[in-house]
Specification:
60% helix, globular, three-stranded antiparallel β-sheet, Enolase-like, domain 1, two-stranded antiparallel ribbon
Length: 281
Amino acid sequence: MKDESLEVFEAQVISVTEAQSRAEIDIQISTAKRYPRSPERATQNVIAIISKDELLARTCVYSLPRGGKTIDGPSVHLARLIASEYKNLRVDSKIVEIGETMITAQSVCLDLENNFAVRTEVKRRITDKHGQRYAEDMIVMTCNAALSIASRNAILQVVPASATQKIFEAAKKAITGDLSTEQALLKRRKEVLDGYKQVYGVKEEEILALLELETVNQIKEAELLTLIGLANAIKEGDTTVAEAFQRTKENATTADTKQKVAAAIAKAKERKSNQNQTPKE
């Protein structure tokens, strides 16, 4: 026999929870209306914070190699910083599904002032290349990465692009710092390359193949930004070392890495040859 009293109790619990949630949002909305944000001030505050802290600036950009091109953008850390300074935003994230092969994270960003909300979803695979399901600790890490990425996407769709673009450009300038001298460039280049070798075990030839360069000396400001951004993308779960450097297995390069390096060298030689053949005026 079904216990009707249990059904009534469950209905009451749900209604009380919903009422509490609605009351909480109503209070936040009224507070937001009472203390409206200043978008210009928020933008300048974030830029000032980033400009004063080089280590923080390095965490603000991600880069992903896709189809022979590099896609970059504001990282999870930068999105959170923007949200905290932009104010009057409510961000909720949760895992909505853990399947056999995929997990799904969902995030909602609500602009309490404008009553505008965006919901985003991010899916991440929880199986390896052999189809084996990850261990529990790896699934937890994958879930956390998916939650972070979903919240970043939601925040950046609510905050105006005009503000995020200004902040993003300021972050890129702050990352490299002053590279006006050869000594400063050499120092920063060594820091970045050593970081890849020590943390990820990435070889010099892998980096050159990724950047399509002939020698390390060709790594300048733009390439350093790409490498720093890629490191952040790996940390945040947007990609992996194996995916970024097209490895067949961990700590080993693919069979065609040498071919890519050779192709990059050939391209560089061809450009140099064309430059030499150009008649001088």
